[in-house]
Write a structure and sequence with these properties.
alpha+beta, 3-stranded antiparallel sheet
């Protein structure tokens, strides 16, 4: 897992997440492996809060079958519910 927050006014959550991806790729590449995303979460900048990003990842051997099909996990904070009413 890589997690970080940016300085005040210096970045947005997307650029923080991009830095997380760079760090994760470098970490895996040191062992000759490939990085695969498991989950990401970002939080934007707002008053009194710096932008943040978290990247959960796996380092896999080249050719691993999981590199072809990511195992992304749903973010439980973003569940959409359809409610149907009969009037």
């Amino acid at each position: 897992m890589v997690s970080r927050s940016a300085g005040w006014g210096s970045a947005n959550a997307s650029s923080v997440l991009a830095d997380d991806y760079r760090e994760a790729n470098e970490f895996c590449a040191k062992d000759g492996k490939k990085m695969e995303t498991v989950h990401t979460q970002t939080s934007p900048m707002y008053f009194g809060h710096r932008p943040e990003a978290q990247l959960d990842f796996m380092c896999l051997q080249p050719g691993d079958s999981q590199l072809r099909r990511p195992m992304m996990q749903a973010d439980p904070q973003k569940i959409v519910e359809k409610i149907q009413t009969n009037n």
